[in-house]
Design goal:
Strand content: 25-35%
Distance between the termini: 31 Å
Helix content: 25-40%
Largest sheet: 6 strands, mixed
Radius of gyration: 21 Å
């Protein structure tokens, strides 16, 4: 474990267990296009030495879990953050300590290289073979839950008119401006992630269950709101050099509800899990009949309001 600063050190729980990282710890679970997971064979002198686990380590007090996982995996395995797309993260709480597994997909192939003294070897291991290895106990406990979510591809479809209209903040005076603010907030969410119970109607529970996701987000605009400005982030929202899914904007030529139904049909044809954000009962019934789930605007707005200030 590389010593960096004040956050490096052991934390002891009330039952006497010890965990590394005074600000908690984070690791990176990265999956490539061949469905292989990058694993680190830990040196014998390290905690649970000789086992296989994820590149990672202690977070610093001034960094997010994503930043910590990317920094540690870069130091230990030369993983380039800009080659990855964020998928979800899972937080294990062992008060006063926590460990966050950050899950990402490879967007651009790279060679993992041992770049510090903490690894015996690095290997791209087929998913089916991971459980057969002598795994770090913490990773072994969470792997079944993490692995079960790797094929999920949640989509959030936002009925912008309904969401904007649910908050009496003067949106009717400038519908395009109100829609622009919503797009900006959703772009920020694409960087930080959204709660799992918003993105999935029935989120998994137990060890390894995602606490937040970076979902595909589609926003449907209608009427005067079609004049909303694109966000300054461009087509790819990024966090710490790592991509999240872009926010897709659909400017409905006429009926926004019809456009939302078309989006749901397309996503469901591709096998996606779809949640539509709307309080419109008729629209909700239509999309449920097509296999989508529905959440109210208040759930989304509460999640956006809780985002850290940029």
């Amino acid at each position: 474990m590389t010593i960096h600063g004040a956050a490096d050190g052991w934390v002891e729980t009330s039952d006497g267990r010890r965990f590394w990282g005074r600000a908690g710890a984070a690791g990176l679970l990265v999956v490539d296009a061949d469905d292989r997971v990058l694993l680190q064979h830990r040196v014998e002198w390290s905690h649970h030495g000789g086992t296989w686990g994820l590149p990672g380590g202690a977070r610093q007090f001034d960094e997010t879990a994503v930043e910590g996982a990317l920094r540690e995996s870069g130091e230990e395995a030369a993983v380039p953050g800009d080659a990855l797309r964020l998928v979800f993260e899972s937080v294990l709480e062992v008060p006063p300590w926590s460990y966050t597994t950050v899950v990402a997909r490879v967007e651009r192939p790279f060679e993992a290289v041992i770049s510090d003294a903490e690894s015996i070897e690095l290997a791209w291991v087929p998913r089916a073979d991971v459980a057969a290895l002598p795994l770090h106990p913490g990773f072994a406990a969470s792997w079944p839950g993490l692995e079960a979510q790797l094929d999920l591809a949640p989509h959030l479809v936002v009925d912008a008119a309904n969401v904007v209209g649910s908050r009496p903040d003067g949106w009717w005076r400038d519908r395009a401006g109100a829609a622009t603010r919503l797009l900006g907030a959703l772009s920020a969410a694409a960087r930080t992630g959204l709660p799992a119970d918003l993105v999935l109607a029935e989120p998994p529970t137990g060890a390894g269950a995602a606490t937040s996701w970076w979902p595909h987000v589609t926003v449907v605009l209608e009427g005067e709101a079609r004049g909303a400005a694109e966000t300054a982030d461009g087509p790819e929202a990024r966090t710490s050099g790592t991509a999240a899914h872009p926010v897709t904007v659909v400017r409905a030529p006429a009926d926004g509800d019809a456009a939302i139904v078309e989006v749901v049909d397309r996503l469901r044809t591709g096998g996606g899990q779809v949640v539509v954000v709307t309080a419109d009962r008729e629209l909700g019934d239509r999309v449920r009949a097509r296999g989508a789930d529905v959440v109210g605007p208040g759930r989304l707005l509460a999640a956006l309001d809780a985002l850290p200030a940029s």
